[in-house]
């Protein structure tokens, strides 16, 4: 997942397995796998609210 994000960046070198493991460990230290779904649902609701707000503002 993180490598695909980086492909839009300057460097498109393939990530080593060790690097992927290290990045995943750092991310899980900040947000556990158990919390990922909760966080994604929160984010999706926030994005939906922003889109509704923008749509309402444009229609005024």
Overview of this structure, please?
With 60 residues, this protein is mostly helical. It has one domain (2-58). The chain has helices at residues 2-6, 17-30, 33-58. The termini are far apart. The mean pLDDT is 89.
Describe the structure concisely.
This protein has 60 residues and is an all-alpha fold. The protein has helices at residues 2-6, 17-30, 33-58.
SSE arrangement:
Blueprint: H1 2-6, H2 17-30, H3 33-58
Q: In percent, how much strand structure appears in the residues?
A: under 5%
Q: Please outline the major beta sheet.
A: none
Q: Helical amount among residues, as a percent range? A: over 70%
Average pLDDT confidence is 89
What is Rg? 17 Å
Q: Work out the helix count.
A: 3
N-end to C-end Cα span: 39 Å
List the helices and strands in order: HHH
Structural class: mainly alpha
Q: Give unreliable regions as ranges.
A: none
Q: Based on DSSP secondary structure assignment, what is the total number of beta strands?
A: 0
Shape: flat
How many separate structural domains? 1
List the keywords.
60 residues, mainly alpha, 75% helix, flat
């Amino acid at each position: 997942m993180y490598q695909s994000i980086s492909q839009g960046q300057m460097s498109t070198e393939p990530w080593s397995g060790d690097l992927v493991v290290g990045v995943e460990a750092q991310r899980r230290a900040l947000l556990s796998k158990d919390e990922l779904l909760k966080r994604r649902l929160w984010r999706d609701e926030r994005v939906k609210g922003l889109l509704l707000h923008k749509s309402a503002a444009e229609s005024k």
